[in-house]
Design brief:
alpha+beta, Phosphorylase Kinase, domain 1, Aminoglycoside 3'-phosphotransferase, Chain: A, domain 2, 3 domains, 5-stranded antiparallel β-sheet, 16 helices, 15 strands
């Protein structure tokens, strides 16, 4: 049954007729059962949404039956549903582990795809085919050892955006392979051609690539995700992450694209506007904050520090050797506080949604900053607080996207926290300048 807040979203987005099924796992599961893809005892998780109000919504599906897991996604279209479904039906498709690889529900304007079928990641069909896999591996590792016969395990999947897999070979070991869209491939390739080693920081080396497949393979980094360490309240990993980030900021990495201010600001404005179709009561407050962020951001001078661009504990692997940074797709030249603000904002977010206690979050942030400052000597100030507020604002829809049950409350608390951080930073600046 739809929660009240989700039912309101359906009401506000009537042009997307299948939206209710993407927001109600029981409704989605009933479709799959009716078409013989699942049994009532099988488990289905709808755990990641990408929502364009009035246009479409994509929901990742994770089906578990026995000891097997199958990834897929459902996409509900808006007014152009008939045209979109026709175009999708014309694409070649393969059977999945569930049998059917693609299913269309015209009366709901919905299509359902199970791996290896993905409308935007065409090369997955070959990667998940025992017959064709060696051919695609030969293209990716054309300048390295022979990876024929390697096995493939899905690590993460974002429909029509990216699939990350672990490739294992009895002689060559393991690597991480990413299959993306052409635009994302070109951006990532641009970065990895320019990345240089940093003393004391693990950075996965490029092991292979293929433009025709929009695929890249990176060295496997052994260790524990910092996400797990954060969940235990382990401050050691956060301190190591801070030191690693500082060394990357101080490194000789240059030649990346510069942060695009106008595009970043447009993203903030769109986030605020989209909120009108998710949580209308918060829209005006969000727009006010977005305007304040825009006015401040345009006054900032361009900086030439290499920044990770999406730095949080999911992008760090820790071991006895220290910390390694992964997923460099968003690397660019910018302000170092962008990364600091991003990391701290993610910690603030999890304190707001109840995943981490506020006390534990404060201790983890303190350890992270101490690690960073031990390498740079930098001290936090009101400028950092403003970057935290902006980064936290970028997480405005995250609780809804990952289907947190309390997402309306999290959005409200997030905006309240953004506003408070912003006002405190402004008051601190006025005190310093004597305004």
């Amino acid at each position: 049954m739809l929660a009240e807040a989700d039912a309101e979203i359906v009401r506000l987005n009537r042009t997307i007729s299948g939206l209710a099924h993407l927001l109600d796992t029981e409704l989605m599961q009933s479709i799959l059962i009716d078409h013989g893809l699942l049994n009532p005892t099988d488990r289905l998780a709808v755990d990641y949404l990408r929502f364009k109000p009035g246009e479409n919504c994509i929901a990742r599906l994770v089906c578990e039956y026995g000891d097997r897991t199958v990834f897929g996604y459902a996409k509900a279209h808006g007014q152009s549903a008939a045209q979109k479904l026709k175009k999708s039906a014309e694409r070649a498709h393969l059977d999945s582990k569930l049998g059917i690889g693609r299913l269309q529900i015209p009366e709901l304007g919905m299509e359902i795809n199970f791996l290896p079928n993905d409308n935007a990641l065409a090369s997955l069909g070959q990667m998940f085919s025992a017959v064709d896999r060696d051919a695609i591996l030969q293209r990716i590792f054309k300048k390295g050892p022979n990876w024929s016969g390697a096995s493939c395990e899905v690590l993460s999947y974002k429909p029509e955006r990216r699939l990350t897999a672990a490739l294992s070979h009895p002689e060559n070991g393991r690597v991480v392979a990413k299959f993306t869209t052409r635009q994302r491939y070109e951006r990532s390739r641009h970065v990895h051609k320019r990345l240089v080693k940093v003393d004391g920081v693990g950075i996965p080396a490029l092991a292979g690539w293929s433009r025709s497949c929009n695929a890249m393979a990176m060295q496997w980094i052994s260790g524990e995700s910092l996400t797990s360490a954060v969940g235990r309240g382990d401050t050691t990993g956060c301190s190591a992450a801070g030191r690693a980030l500082a060394r990357f900021h101080l490194s000789a990495n240059k030649g990346f694209r510069t942060s695009e201010q106008r595009r970043n600001l447009g993203d903030l404005t769109r986030l605020a506007d989209d909120l009108s179709m998710i949580s209308p009561g918060q829209t005006e407050r969000a727009r006010t904050l977005a305007l304040a962020f825009e006015q401040w951001w345009l006054q900032q001078e361009a900086r030439s520090t290499p920044v990770h661009g999406d730095f949080n504990f999911e992008q760090v692997v820790v071991s006895q050797k220290g910390a390694a940074m992964i997923d460099f797709d968003e690397v660019r030249m910018g302000h170092p506080m962008e990364d600091l603000g991003s990391f701290i904002a993610r910690m603030e977010f999890h304190a707001l949604d109840g995943s981490i206690s506020p006390t534990a979050a404060a201790e983890l942030v303190s350890a992270f900053m101490e690690g960073y400052q031990s390498e740079t000597g930098m001290r936090a100030n009101g400028g950092l607080q403003r970057f935290i507020a902006v980064a936290l604002f970028r997480l405005l829809h995250h609780s809804f996207r990952v289907r947190k049950e309390n997402w309306p409350e999290v959005i409200s608390a997030l905006l309240e926290r953004c506003d408070l951080i912003w006002r405190e930073a402004r008051a601190s600046q006025e005190e310093v300048t004597g305004c």
